[in-house]
Every structure is written in structure tokens, then in C-alpha cells.
Amino acid sequence: MSQTRKRVALLISGGGSNMVALAQSMTGDHPARPVLVLSNDPAAKGLARAAEMGIPTAVAEHRPFKGDRAAFEAALLEPLLAAEPDVICLAGFMRILTPDFTGRFAGRMLNIHPSLLPKYPGLHTHQRALDAGDTEAGCSVHEVIADLDAGPLLGQARVPVLPGDDADSLAARVLVQEHRLYPAVLRRFVTGDRTPVIL
């Protein structure tokens, strides 16, 4: 008897390319399925892409809450809890979540970050790697904890930094690897395997 497929909610803020890569991977005999794409921005292009793929969507816009993170997160929780996810994947979700929120989903929430963590948590990762003279860059998938981009690593993929690279060219090359790494980590994670994926 096959086990019930795990329910995955995907949180986005923009175009949702990592969301699309994850959703497209959850087909056939995959042990998980997407049940919700949730955005803090009603204009996020990823919402339309999710709808085209037949995935339910919802919006919890952050702007009306004017910095009241607890109230925003209460709005975020409403559609999220209704979807009853087993796993939450942050896929370009550009809001920092409170310890109360991350604690509620401890051990069940993943994020992808465009650097080789623990290097360069936060923003502007590609320019920071170039400014530091790094010879390689990449991306990391990690469990989400209260501290920003600091949870246990579940996978990394590396790319060389090439002569003449700028932040945009490096970002484009890293993004290709993000679309490979995140689905590989998710497939392993939903089976209970926390062994890091190295690409």
C-alpha cells in the first residue's frame, strides 16, 4: 500500500521560478504534491503561473499591516492552515518571519538561498561574493529557524565565478542550479531523509 503523498505549500513574492520547478517535480510517483501557492503580493506573477498549473492560490498582502508582523502573519496563517500542509517551501518569499511563526512549523519549513551558506545570509549575495573575490558561488537549501538563513543545511550546489561576471550573470547561473537543487532536496526531505544533497 502506498503512503499518502505529503502536502506542500509554496510561499512566493514574485515570479515564482523556484515554485514552478518544485511544482513540476511533484508529478508521477513523487511522494509529495503542491496544495497551495501563497503570496504576500497580489501582483506576484507566480500566482498566475500556479493557477495555470492547477494549484490553488491565495494572497495575504503585507502592505496593509504597516510593519505589524504579527498581524500580517495571522493573515498569512489563515489560508496556510486551511491547506493543511505537511511541508512549507519558501520559494522567493521576501518577508522575514517571526520566531513565533517559524517555531510553529519547526522541522517542516524549507528555504532556498542564493549563496553557499553560511556565507552571505540576507540580500545582495552575488555582488557580495564578487566583491570578496570568491572563485565559486552557489545556492543552499536549509531548514528555516528563527535566525535568518541559519537553519540546518539540506543541500548545496556550486558554480564557478567566471572572469567578467557581474551580479546578474552570476545570479542567472546560480538560478539554474537552484531549479535542480530545491526539487532534489524536497523529494528527499518528504521521505524523512535529512542527508544533504550536494550537486
What report would you give on this structure?
This protein has 2 domains: about 1-105, Rossmann fold; about 115-199, Rossmann fold, CATH 3.40.50. Helix content is about 35%, strand content about 25%. It is built from 6 helices and 8 strands. The chain has an 8-stranded mixed beta sheet, with helices on both faces. The two termini are about 30 Å apart. This is Phosphoribosylglycinamide formyltransferase. Belongs to the GART family.
Helix and strand layout, with pairings?
Layout: E1 6-12, H1 17-25, E2 32-39, H2 45-52, E3 57-59, H3 69-83, E4 87-90, H4 99-104, E5 109-113, H5 125-131, E6 136-143, E7 153-160, H6 167-189, E8 197-198
Parallel strand pairs: 1-2, 1-4, 2-3, 4-5, 7-8
Antiparallel strand pairs: 5-6, 6-7
Site (Raises pKa of active site His): 149
Catalytic activity: N(1)-(5-phospho-beta-D-ribosyl)glycinamide + (6R)-10-formyltetrahydrofolate = N(2)-formyl-N(1)-(5-phospho-beta-D-ribosyl)glycinamide + (6S)-5,6,7,8-tetrahydrofolate + H(+)
Pfam families: Formyl_trans_N (PF00551)
Provide a quick synopsis of the model.
Keywords: Purine biosynthesis, Transferase. With 199 residues, the protein is α/β, with parallel strands linked by helices.
How is the CATH topology of the largest domain named? Rossmann fold
The CATH superfamily title of the largest domain = Formyl transferase, N-terminal domain
Task: Determine the number of helices (DSSP H or I, runs of at least 4 residues).
Answer: 6
In angstroms, what separates the terminal alpha carbons? 32 Å
Assembly status: single chain
The total count of strands amounts to: 8
The unreliable regions are none
Largest sheet: 8 strands, mixed
Order of helices and strands: EHEHEHEHEHEEHE
Q: Average pLDDT value?
A: 96
- What is the radius of gyration computed over CA atoms, rounded to a whole number of angstroms? 16 Å
| Number of structural units classed as domains | 2
